[in-house]
Amino acid sequence: MVQGVKILTSVAPEAQAEVLTPDALTFLAVLHRTFEPTRQNLLVARDVAQRRYVSGASFDFPAETSHIRADLTWHCAAPGPGLEDRRVEIIGLTDRKMVINALNSGAKTFMADFEDSSSPTFANMINGQVNLRDAIRRQIDFEIGGKPYKLIQKLAVLLVRLSASIFDFAIYFFHNAHELIKRGHGPHFYLPKMEHYLEARLWNDIFLFSRSYIGLPHNTVRATVLIETLPAAFQMEEILFELRNHSSGLNCGRWDYIFSAIKKRRADRASVFSDRKDVTMTVPFMDAYVRLLIQTCHRRKVAAMGGMSAQIPIKDDPKANEAALGKVRADKLREIAHPLIHAIARQVFDENMLGPNQYHVRREDVRVAAADLTNADVPGKIIEQGVRSNVSVALAYSTAWLGGSGCIPVNHLMEDAATAEIARVQLWQWVKYAVRMDNGASITVAFVDHIIDELSPTIKSIVPEINEKHLKITTDHLKGQIRQQGPSDFLTSDLMPFLTMADGVELRWQHSSW
């Protein structure tokens, strides 16, 4: 065993033996010891910033970096091999079947998600590493129920989204970086939940250190940053600048962005949104965010990626299926959530976009001010069905997550943690400000408690293999959330101890991180 490193669970012993090798653990330990102090300081800075927002500080573009935004001479590195054309990108779990289906889907790129689409049980995380290692080496074929799953010749290019970030990065990078380059692609990553350009600087330092540690050639690592927090929307140029030698663009993480907009502005009564379904990409603050992201990326010659289109096929209802596919066409987004949707998404881009990208479309006509990014004008009403929908999806997702499933189909949409987070903070916000529904009734703790109690027994219809113990935990958690002075940062952080206890980890060793 590596000095100072202890594995606290015996779950997935075969996978552990394959990827938690002494050399890999040594690399992980060095990364942790080198960068953990900086990471902790950045987390403290997030808390300090949130306290400023609660005290009334406004959101704005950083004054200290105005020279970076004004300098039009700098650009990011050219796209890494395989990232020149990202017109259709699929996102999915890292289980063996999904990895094969996604790589075979016909999409240009596949984002293997260790974050919001995953329930981070130790088995899920460590087996996911094995599955990606095997996929890269084309040794992932298997059979289930008599049906073979095999990789075809032409595959989507693999990108990896990180959760418990340094661990996931270290294990994947150590085992696969050289192999990926040998096969014509560099290691490509997605960086989620970023809030500040100094966090991008940390990742740039991690990439430089790691490349040097394993002897990787220059200019081979690429990372796309998810702009899915409100503070990051004001620092897109700076984030690209910090990662300019490693950047492969920015992505509109729209669901988490809505969640962040509510959470970060929770002290502002004027920023209470109407029903979740009304917060679309066309409302002012979302439209401004997308236009600024596209302009920023094209100005710096990197990809501007649209947020995920979450529709999934409806096999037993042709009319409803066509309506769902119509929404994908209308959305004109670059990401999809189901392998059978890629053809629709590709058709939209083939018809409307000549060539693999539009870096040349500079959008100099776009003018986005700070006030545009915080414009809380969302048309619509708050209705009882919206409250019920939020309760239902929050309970269903959280309960499935405790059972090891990180994304679930709900009403023909593939939902991950972001949807549950929006639902949770909206319920908190509506109770906090005792907002009135369209029928004149106020939303109170007692009212939401009643709906939680009413809907809790129905969650089995959404999550068939529900564990009653898990449902009790999530019911209590949601009731606790609407009573708090402020919402928890992440419901997954609140619930993580239950996963780690199930993995046999003692409470004293538990610690959540971004």
UniProtKB/TrEMBL annotation:
Residue numbers annotated as active site: 161 (proton acceptor), 416 (proton donor)
Top EC class, one word: transferase
Record domain Malate synthase TIM barrel: where: 162-374
GO terms under biological process: glyoxylate cycle; tricarboxylic acid cycle
Domain Malate synthase N-terminal, chain residue ranges per copy: 12-66
Gene Ontology terms, MF aspect: malate synthase activity
Pathway given in the UniProt record: Carbohydrate metabolism; glyoxylate cycle; (S)-malate from isocitrate: step 2/2
Keywords carried by this UniProt record: Glyoxylate bypass, Transferase, Tricarboxylic acid cycle
Catalytic activity annotation: glyoxylate + acetyl-CoA + H2O = (S)-malate + CoA + H(+)
CDD domains xref list: malate_synt_A
E.C. code: 2.3.3.9
Domain Malate synthase C-terminal: 382-495
GO CC entries: peroxisomal matrix
Pfam family, one: MS_TIM-barrel
Protein family per UniProt: Belongs to the malate synthase family.
Protein name: Malate synthase
Source species of the chain: Scleroderma citrinum Foug A
